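Help! Submission page says 'invalid entity' but I think these are all valid:
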Amino acid sequence: MARLAEDSRFALQKDRMLRAAAHCFNQKGYSGTSLKDVAARLGLTDAALYYYVRNKEELVYLCYVRAAAVGREAMQVAVRDGSYGLDKVRRYLEMHVDGIVGEQGPLAIMSEIPSLEPAHRDEILALSRAHSVAFESLLTEGIEDASIRPCDIRMTGNAIMGAINWIPKWFHGDTPMARHIVRQFPLILSAGLAVRDDPPSVPPNTPAGARR
Amino acid sequence: MARLAEDSRFALQKDRMLRAAAHCFNQKGYSGTSLKDVAARLGLTDAALYYYVRNKEELVYLCYVRAAAVGREAMQVAVRDGSYGLDKVRRYLEMHVDGIVGEQGPLAIMSEIPSLEPAHRDEILALSRAHSVAFESLLTEGIEDASIRPCDIRMTGNAIMGAINWIPKWFHGDTPMARHIVRQFPLILSAGLAVRDDPPSVPPNTPAGARR
DNA sequence: CAATCATTTTAATCCAGATTAAAATCGGGG
DNA sequence: CCCCGATTTTAATCTGGATTAAAATGATTG
């Protein structure tokens, strides 16, 4: 019978499983990956997965929960450690991209929320929206403190997130390339945001009071 | 029995079918969409589709062929009408985005080339690569004529294409919004490329001779 | 109106992949 | 060495979705 949470062996295996699943889902989508695909990456039989999870849907759900947690963490760190809008955005992007291609195992891209069962769908949708809002407020902050040029925030957020979410479609895990992506993407994506060509070496305007 | 090409009724229906299919595939992926989904958008039964196409695989294949043709056309026009690197890139982006969200019906995003059968896969892969190369050479041209800042061309291309390819994941056909996207995306995406904040009102350096 | 080809539906068939139950294996204490 | 829970496999079942063949419906022409 499945254990609760802290059991070493169980928890570790479940974690491996979620990473394997995230990898598959990112590569071939929800319907496109069979449980056999995921199990194969673990050297197991498809049926074995049911020891850890109720069904396939719960598998994606858990992948998304994990991704949301890591994403929230990245956002918090970026907000805490960043000094001004654009800086926070860059830090966030770097951590986020690293989460997706880095060693800690792939994070699932939340691209199939509609396939979740209603309760899960609502929950993940809320997390996802909250995250978008947080990112957009970083952009807003950057515009207010003049580190980011005025722009259509919603569209800009969509563009940046799209560029990142698409990475798993063309990148298939090789470490040196991953490092390169983690270095380049934040630069490329923030280049379009910056007011100046070169990143300001000193923080721009102090925020104008109003801060979300 | 299926007609060859020019037959009016047949060709028109087949075209409607490809658009319906592209819409579904963009939204839910290859395995995620059933023939019933596509047929439903046409007011038909799933079995009816077999009158126009050998099987589901051929359906994606044809969607991709169509997308490649439109993309190539856009690229040619951009190269022909654009005056300098960044300008060509912008024109291309605008036409490409318009192809994806615009009226001419949705273009399929080539995100599932691996699901094609080998012969088709190779063919589409070649078209896709040729297209990437063409886009990258626009970037190169822009760098050479100093309208685009030096950057990692491959990564930049991936970022831009990703942002665009992701659009169908969050946009679900409503015309005014589509127009807004077509206006905004090229601006947002090219902002990161431009050497200056404002698009040069006059063409920059004359290309340095070497041109691909 | 009849004849004929075009188009679509109805009614199977088939298979992959999800899910489940029961049996087999594994690993460590007693 | 034996026992027990933890983990995984084997073997079946079930279902949705692709595919097909035959029948029904439409439309066009002579």
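Support: the input was valid. A stray whitespace character was the problem, and the output above is from the cleaned input. Chain A is about 65% helix and 0% strand.
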